[in-house]
Structures are given as C-alpha cells and as structure tokens.
Amino acid sequence: MDIRQATVDDLLGMQNANLLNLPENYTFKYYLYHALTWPELSYVAVDPRGRIVGEEEPSDEPSGHVTSISVLRPYRRLGLANKLMKQSHADGEDAYGMRYLFKKPTPS
Ligand SMILES: CC(C)(COP(=O)(O)OP(=O)(O)OC[C@H]1O[C@@H](n2cnc3c(N)ncnc32)[C@H](O)[C@@H]1OP(=O)(O)O)[C@@H](O)C(=O)NCCC(=O)NCCS
Fold first, then answer.
1. Are 52 and 45 in contact (CB under 8 A)?
2. Which residues span the domain enclosing 50?
3. Which alpha helices (H) appear in 1-108, and where do they start and end?
4. What pLDDT shows up at residue 107?
5. In the 8-state DSSP scheme, what is residue 40?
6. Closest ligand 1 atom, CA of 24?
7. How far is the CA of 49 from the centre of ligand 1 (A)?
8. Which of 10, 14, 80, 94 is 20 to 30 A from 46 in CA distance terms?
9. What's the domain count of the chain?
C-alpha cells in the first residue's frame, strides 16, 4: 500500500472513504478548502490499483488537529492510519513548526 500526498484529484475518493467510515462528514467544498489551504498536509493510502483506502486531513496549525482519518475495513490493522498520522505530523512540523498532532474522538 502506498502513502502519498493527496491532490485535488483525490478529493472525491477521500470524501468517499470518510463517508464510509465516519459519522462526521464534510462537504466537497470543505475538502477543497483544505487542499488549497494546506496542500502539503493531506495524505491518502492507495491500493495497487490506485483506489483510495485511507485518508487523513489535518488543520489548525501550528498545533495540528486532524479533521478526518479513516481506513476502509478490509485494509485496517495494517498500520496505514499510523503511517498517515506520522507523515502529516512530519510535514506539519517542517511546514508550520507543528509540534503536536491531535485527533479528538469522533462522537458515536
Ligand atoms: C481508526 C482507524 C483509522 C485505524 O486505522 P488502521 O489503519 O487500522 O490503524 P493502524 O493499523 O495504523 O493502527 C494504529 C494503532 O491503533 C490500534 N488499533 C487499530 N484499530 C484498533 C481497534 N479496533 N481497537 C484497538 N486498537 C486499534 C493499533 O493496534 C495501532 O496501535 P499501535 O500503534 O500501538 O500498534 C480505522 O479503524 C478507521 O477508519 N475507523 C473508522 C473511522 C474512525 O474511527 N476514525 C477515527 C476517528 S477518531
């Protein structure tokens, strides 16, 4: 599984992963806003066919808050969420001096 920076072309796939995995959902406009404002901080996990199987979107630098992190069920417990978090944290640190990256629990 490949972890790479998200592009505008990935936004529909990211929104889809979020819709499938989480009760907190966002408009496409919100994803676009993230991609344009913090282009270096959103990451996707993609399978060998290029399908997005995980996504993460931080916001609110310099202490980062993850807006959404999700991994499709068949791809869970493979370390993808860990990799997505580490990648965003490292880039947030480089770009904005972000020391911490938080994810508040999602209300169930
Ligand atoms: C939460 C979620 C993103 C984890 O994705 P993942 O790729 O399976 O996670 P990883 O394999 O990278 O595991 C990360 C850590 O969480 C632990 N973990 C993962 N799923 C777990 C579970 N169901 N119960 C307990 N621990 C779990 C792993 O053991 C690992 O811990 P470690 O770093 O100490 O070894 C995924 O289960 C998901 O999409 N859930 C639905 C959406 C959601 O709840 N998002 C988070 C909102 S707060």
1. yes
2. 2-102
3. 11-21, 28-37, 80-96
4. 62
5. T
6. 47
7. 23
8. 94
9. 1
